[in-house]
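User: Hi! I have a protein structure encoded as tokens and I'd like to know what sequence might fold into it. I'm fairly new to this, so please keep things simple.
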């Protein structure tokens, strides 16, 4: 059963459409990554999902409760950490978490135990008596996360949780998110590929306010034309290599790369249906008296997939804008 359902979500600011007809479902007990370039609509979507913004069209259901029509019931199921943690700088960590627990309506008899638990989980116990304004960026992020976890919500939504953290803090935050994923459904947004691939079970790629892909990291490999690329270096010009590639039916395209070898060319060759053309290409290069200096079959990374899908979406948007102006 889906714990979060987003149906035909659209958000417009005047003539600008930030989110366009976005639909997806979030299943219980997984870590979802919301991936996209800056300005893609990630934060807008999360603000609507948590009730901070109203949608122009569409609806969001959290455990069956509409976020706009039943905000109290829906928000009881959500813990939210915005990109800028909503902390009060002049409170101590403990004072702030007590305040947050009261706002969330956590029964008085349970508050102390829950606050101790979230402080231990986010490792802020040692700074509990310090003013938040005197804490580092990493600790303030942890305090913001502690308030999001209070009340044991079913869904925890984190908007760019690793922005501004140093490498050690990023690793600690990743481990913490993985720990949360054992008991909660977690949705986090980022424009940094390594963050998403390191912790998420499922990835949703958004570009230009539209969902362009939604699958597991492994499943995304099948969404692009080929999952493999053959890096080939030959002692010839690109024109000579291209002439040989034009005779091989499985070749989709070849992209020239600068070669470190003198009088050589390196090309990245993509094929249909992951066809392995190494044997056929080797024979044809031999027939054309073109020496082979190297061949290496590489699997596409998540970065390749992300760039291909988002660039394709931007090209389609550009074509639509051009057509509408005709």
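Assistant: Happy to help. Inverse folding works backwards from shape to sequence: for each of the 326 positions I chose a residue that suits the local structure. Here it is:
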């Amino acid at each position: 059963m889906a714990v979060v359902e987003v149906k035909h979500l659209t958000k417009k600011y005047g003539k600008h459409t930030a989110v366009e007809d976005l639909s997806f479902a979030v299943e219980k007990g997984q870590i979802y990554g919301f991936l996209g370039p800056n300005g893609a609509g990630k934060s807008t979507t999360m603000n609507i999902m948590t009730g901070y913004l109203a949608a122009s069209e569409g609806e969001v259901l959290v455990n069956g409760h509409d976020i706009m029509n039943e905000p109290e019931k829906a928000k009881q199921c959500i813990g939210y950490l915005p990109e800028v943690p909503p902390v009060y700088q002049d409170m101590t960590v403990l004072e702030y978490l007590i305040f947050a627990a009261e706002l969330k309506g956590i029964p008085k008899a349970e508050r102390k135990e829950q606050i101790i638990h979230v402080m231990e989980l986010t490792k802020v116990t040692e700074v509990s008596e310090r003013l938040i304004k005197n804490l580092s960026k990493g600790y303030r992020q942890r305090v913001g996360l502690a308030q999001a976890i209070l009340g044991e919500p079913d869904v925890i939504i984190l908007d760019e949780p690793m922005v501004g953290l140093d490498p050690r803090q990023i690793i600690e935050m990743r481990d913490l998110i993985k720990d949360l994923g054992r008991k909660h459904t977690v949705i986090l947004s980022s424009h940094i590929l390594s963050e998403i691939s390191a912790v998420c079970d499922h990835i949703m790629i958004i570009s230009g306010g539209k969902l362009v892909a939604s699958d597991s990291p492994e499943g995304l490999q099948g969404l692009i034309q080929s999952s493999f690329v053959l890096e080939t270096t030959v002692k010839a010009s690109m024109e000579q290599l291209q002439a040989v590639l034009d005779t091989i039916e499985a070749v989709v395209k070849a992209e020239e790369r600068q070669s470190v070898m003198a009088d050589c060319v390196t090309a990245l060759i993509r094929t249909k249906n992951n066809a392995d053309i190494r044997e056929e290409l080797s024979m044809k290069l031999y027939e054309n008296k073109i020496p082979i200096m190297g061949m290496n079959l590489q699997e596409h990374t998540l970065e390749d997939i992300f760039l291909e899908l988002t660039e394709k979406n931007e090209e389609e948007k550009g074509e639509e804008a051009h057509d509408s102006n005709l």
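A useful reference point when you look it over: The first strand starts at residue 2 and ends at 13. Feel free to ask if any position seems puzzling.
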